[in-house]
Automatic annotation (TrEMBL):
Residues modified as N6-(pyridoxal phosphate)lysine: 399
Cofactor(s) required for function per UniProt: pyridoxal 5'-phosphate
Record bears the keyword Lyase: yes
Record-linked PANTHER family: HISTIDINE DECARBOXYLASE, PTHR46101
Sorted UniProt keywords: Decarboxylase, Lyase, Pyridoxal phosphate
GO terms, biological process: carboxylic acid metabolic process
Top-rank taxon: Bacteria
Protein name per its UniProtKB record: Histidine decarboxylase
Coiled-coil region list: none
Amino acid sequence: MNKITSTSPTDDPEKVYPRVPGIDYKYFKLSPEGVPEAWRKIALQQLHEYELAQKQHFLGYQTNQKLNFDEELHQYLNYHLNNVGDPFQSGNLTLNSKFIERAVLDYFASLWNAQWPHNNNKNTPYEERKDSYWGYVLTMGASEGNVYALWNARDYLSGKFLMTDAEVEHKAKEASKCGRKVSIEPRTMYYQAIAPECNPNKYTPVAFYSQDTHYSIIKFMRVLNIQTFYEIAVNNKLKCPLEKDDYPDDFSNEYIDEISGWPLEVPSDKDGNIHIPALVKLVDFFAEKGYPPLISFNYGTTFKGAYDRVKDAVEKLVPVFKNRNLYERKVHYDPNDKSKFDVRNGFWIHVDGALGAGYMPFIEMAIKQNKIKLPDGYTFPEFDFRIKELHSLVFSGHKWLGAPWPTGIFMSKVKYQLQPPDDPQYIGSPDTTFAGSRNGFSPIILWNSLSKNSYDSLIEMAVNMEGLAEYAFQEFKKLEQKLGIDLWVERSPLSLTIRFKKPDDHIVFKYSLSEEELYVDGKRRKYCHMYIMGHVTEKLIDEFILELSKPYVIPDQEEQVEQVVKCDIKPNATKLLHVPYIGRGFK
Ligand SMILES: *Cc1c(COP(=O)(O)O)cnc(C)c1O
């Protein structure tokens, strides 16, 4: 034993960790000697068999398993490609793929109707470049894009700015008075504007997002200390302006805090879409009090796959912003010098398009070419940079398009980066992205897929998947008839997911089904959903439905009685945001 310094275990890890079918942990356990070669071979074999089996039945999450990258790209496993820093600046870490990253970003900018190429060249007049896009390829998935967007939104709305420290100049002048010239390096400072007394909430962003929002948004609200409307309302004992009519039909009261009367998040309808009348009323209520609203929409919700009608909502919100003097407002750098200010929007519109931003543009094209029929009464929900009030958009690359690891895209506009107009005093952030090191392999993966497909082939792919989702839905309906039981089967319009009553655990494992609890008509129900992604075939759907048709595979659910929560401690502390345990798809 080469043991120099290392701890011994307090228990056998095999006993304390979850068991995984087909995996003998002893072959994987790492020791100071590594793993004996014969065991390593067994371990790799078990790994392969396990992942292959799970991949073959994969139905429960929105990640495409139809991947074919090894042939052309396998050699890059032996390169460390790092796109650290801004994608539009070369940087010194030259072993990167930023030139491909820029091609991928341009592609999506064009697809999402943004102004491209990115241009923040100081030789171009600001007016011409301010609307050009800025973005980058994410190392995490859309979660990273969400935190980055919310961070930008918070700084933008809360009146933060970056400037050269004016005291440095003063110091240099003072020092120079002694007769010798002193040069002092400029220093970038992060500043916070001061709210005027007449409008104390001017720099306090208030967040609005629906009850179908992905948990990453909620997590980052906490990371960034952004307050939600609920939080501000209960702590200031405000009275909720929503009346019964402002809630969607079929709304379950469990989503309301019965003590304060406020909904915990913005209500959504049973399909999972944010309820626009409630949103508009809530936003107006806070806008009237001077708070700048930060609104996060979903385009493809995690569990129900619903597309918020972003354009319709923004059309209703713009008059509210204008009426409350938030459409454009001055952010003063110095309360005593009214001549120095930046003009900013007093609101931020973010779209979490983790899933939908990838294929819905092709569905829109398919509609225009009469290649797809919309559900009765349904019109295409626009979400992209054609909405001129849109501030940021994110997308996960590994979901619809497919990648071996999480990746994605963040996109915004030059004018929303913290770098005010043509004044040499103002400078942008020297480090524009979220992380330090950035994955340089991911842009190659995205480029590989996009370079092999035309819009026509992507339209065909998107239309086929909609067709398969409808097929699966109809097969479920037939199954319901055959079994004579209500399986709670539902599919939101154009969504790639079908939700249904939770089957037995062995099915949940075999098909990697995501499970979720939802309140329906005041009752708590356990659901699962399946997602149609590129690898899913009619054959896999048929096999799945056949398994569900066997006796006892979909057990009855006892009516779940709400547990009585015993709460001995009542903190004498400020109540912050609601952290949901159900409805968000993180299981
Ligand atoms: C999956 C998902 C995310 C998070 O994306 P990751 O790529 O897993 O980080 C965010 N929002 C929605 C709506 C999602 O479905």
